[in-house]
Amino acid sequence: MEILKIEKLEKVYGTGENAVDALGGLDFSVDQGEFVAIIGQSGSGKSTLLNLIGGLDVPTNGKIVIRNRDISTLKKNELTIFRRRNIGFVFQNYSLMPMLTVYDNVALPVTFDSVKKIDHPYISSLLKDLGLWEKRKKYPGELSGGQQQRVAIARALANKPAIILADEPTGNLDTKTTLEVMGLLKESNKKFHQTIIMVTHNAAIAQTCDRLIRIEDGKIVERG
């Protein structure tokens, strides 16, 4: 089942002589439960693409359809609510709240939604599955880099989102921890039938995903 469809997606920064074409007419789709890697050199447009899919930026032209909603047509407050309920983010720098415990960091996305109640049994099961249960009362500063990235993955799963967007999630990690985090992402992908779109510059990591999309100069040059 198709969960994401990108049609003629363009992003231009600046105007006139200063205009920069970051993305030039992308077309592709992603099915429910796929683990897709977006690969390309620095400045190729892959992070721009991830930001557009995540509703963190607005396209110049084209469509981004998630769960049959074209998010490029949503008003700002509608987009905020849709993003909160349908998209999970895993960043390279973890982006955890230092003053919150592991448990509260994971539950944080749900607390922002006044309609939803925190599913404590589900949060607990996530922490146990990701080997964090014993660390649930610790603070981010008391954890290793790999453990912090585990917390970020658990937080991304907390809202049971349509899609998880991972932006260089292993970029700050050593080889051993990189393999561990990739294993956790793949396990989450299989266990929760979770759709994951991951930006990476690491070709070896990309090859472990279900499919890769290579971008150069804002255009797709390879699908595999």
* The CATH homologous superfamily: P-loop containing nucleotide triphosphate hydrolases
Side by side, the strands of the main sheet go: 6-7-8-3-9-10
The structural class is alpha/beta
Distance between the terminal alpha carbons, to the nearest Å?
19 Å
CATH class category label: Alpha Beta
Assigned CATH architecture: 3-Layer(aba) Sandwich
Give the SSE string. EEEHEEHEHHHEHEHEE
Task: List unreliable stretches of 5+ residues.
Answer: none
Strand content range: 25-35%
Global outline: globular
The name of the CATH topology is: Rossmann fold
- Roughly what is the average pLDDT, rounded to an integer? 91
Number of strands: 10
- Rg, rounded, reads 17 Å
Major beta sheet summary: 6 strands, mixed
Describe the structure.
The chain has helices at residues 46-53, 76-86, 102-111, 120-129, 145-157, 175-191, 203-206, and strands spanning 2-13, 20-31, 35-39, 61-66, 69-70, 87-91, 163-167, 195-200, 211-216, 219-223. The model has no long low-confidence stretch (mean pLDDT 91). It has one domain (32-59, 75-223): P-loop containing nucleotide triphosphate hydrolases (Rossmann fold, 3-Layer(aba) Sandwich). It is α/β, with parallel strands linked by helices and 224 residues long. It is globular, with a radius of gyration of 17 Å. Strand 1 (2-13) and strand 2 (20-31) form a beta hairpin. The chain is built from seven helices and ten strands. The two termini are 19 Å apart. Helices cover 33% and strands 29% of the residues. The chain has a six-stranded mixed β-sheet with strand order 6-7-8-3-9-10.
